[in-house]
Amino acid sequence: MSRQPTPEEIEEIRGIPLYQPSLAQGYFPVLEKPVIAEGFPENWMTPALAAALDSGDAEFVLSTGTNHARMQIIRPPYFLLHSYYRLWSEHPDIAETWEAGCPRVSLTTVMATEHVARVNAKRRGGEPAATPALDERRLDARTVYLNLSRDPALWDRAEVGRMIEEIRSVQASHPSGRYHLDCSTSHLAHLVRKAADWGLWADFPRPASIIHAYEYTPATVRRFLRARFDCPIVDLFGSTELGYLYYSDAEGAYHPYLDRMSVELLETVPDSGLYSLIVTSLRNPYMPLIRYRSGDVVRTLDGSPDPNRIARFTGREKELLPTPHGPLSQGDLDEAVAAAAPGVFQHQLRLYEGEMAELAYTTFTGGPLDGAAERALAEAAGSLTGRRCRAAHHDHLPIGRSGKYAWLAAHS
């Protein structure tokens, strides 16, 4: 039986036009993204929201697209950042670095850096510099952004040296010489590899804590980073429209963080054990969401639809690949890749006509796998997908316009 909103939740959304048909029927179906977009923003407009937009207490933003469409939403300014800071300050493994006032260095997509530079330039009444200085990349008193180019695989030695020096300058600003590192794990892995290759690893200041929160992290990348950083590494799961819903502990187990929220899991296909994440949230007062399909898919520890037992966030629902064995998620393929070939850094499944596929991959060493490991990789991918699959080493895998990697691609 589907979860329906509580009396408290109904009071919060009673005046919102979007929900009037459901209120009249006494039943709330799953809320899909196209329904949110249809008639936006009038379908959300109330006198209170209009006043908040006029005063600046609410703003229009776009959801962060990875390899999927972006959606316009309304939320308080810095909604996601405040959710991040609160969770950091309360996290059982890393709250100490928040309390110690550790500055935050963010290594993620260049789009994030450019956004901060644009906002700062607008405050000054000018245009952002082509190459903004570190102070021009400061989000607030606590956070600065590092990345100045789209593809981290193409960073040169000078760029890596610049980022390490900027981290050192931030570290030196703290009385105890400590800092917190916020990152996309692929960007951090590229930086670590390049620093080691160019003899700069000894100069890389070690962080006091690490949070990654922006993309799916491959299991091999997670192992690579844990082997190189002797500090808690925490994953936060959330979205622009919801804030953060779950966090991992230092051992990698996930815990719910559902302030003014609830979650239900709906199986994508019967008996698949793969669940859609359905969220009811009053956390954003300007767009309360009732039974909202976030677009994410998960697996649980015991295969049950218990949101307290989520084991893995396995990717996006729109990216599920139909196979003879049922839908295949990014996380399912990643788990098989990590088991078959631990030396793989990045991978992409490329689909061709006639049930052919190629598992394109890079490695942490830069060279190809040996023949046995490459055959094992191809067999693992073929078994999961039901396709004739070969594994092929590449020196470089392209990054998307969003600054994130796609795990699945169609090729002619």
From TrEMBL:
Coiled coil: none annotated. This is Phenylacetate-CoA ligase.
